[in-house]
From TrEMBL:
This is CCD17 protein. The keyword Kinase does not apply. Keywords: Coiled coil. The gene is Ccdc17. PANTHER family: COILED-COIL DOMAIN-CONTAINING PROTEIN 17. It comes from Cardinalis cardinalis.
Length: 141
């Protein structure tokens, strides 16, 4: 991360790039165990076989460029994973909201049904015989 940040900010000092590379080697060695640590220390103490040239040339420049690309790839993979997680969370939230709307609709439909049933039970029913005779005069045609 340090090396990628250094390169992104325009850093190009071969000595600093070499130090960052050695730090990366030591970190990798620590992750792999003590056998790698001895090799990394030996490499860090040994003078460079090839004199330092401008960045991007020679083996050192290629190693630094490769490491920078690998770090950038990891960074992009992390961003991609974060985007996927956010998208899944939004989809889950949307499906939860739809589920809540369906439950609310079912509850309201059940309440409407209960109210209809209640009004039919409490409505006074009149027998049809009560209305056999017209109440008023017939309407003109």
């Amino acid at each position: 991360a340090l090396q990628a940040s250094y390169l992104r900010s325009g850093g190009c000092d071969p000595t600093i790039l070499d130090q960052l590379l050695h730090l990366q080697l030591e970190a990798t060695a620590l992750e792999k165990g003590t056998a790698g640590l001895h090799r990394a220390r030996h490499m860090a103490e040994a003078p460079p076989a090839v004199p330092a040239e401008t960045p991007g040339t020679g083996t050192h420049g290629l190693d630094a460029a490769l490491l920078a690309v690998e770090l950038e790839n990891r960074h992009l993979e992390d961003e991609l994973l974060a985007l996927k997680v956010r998208r899944e969370r939004r989809a889950d939230a949307g499906s939860r909201a739809a589920q809540q709307h369906r439950q609310e609709l079912a509850r309201l439909q059940a309440e409407v049904g209960m109210l209809r049933c209640h009004t039919e039970q409490t409505r006074p029913w009149l027998h049809p015989s009560v209305f056999t005779h017209p109440i008023g005069p017939p309407l003109p045609p």
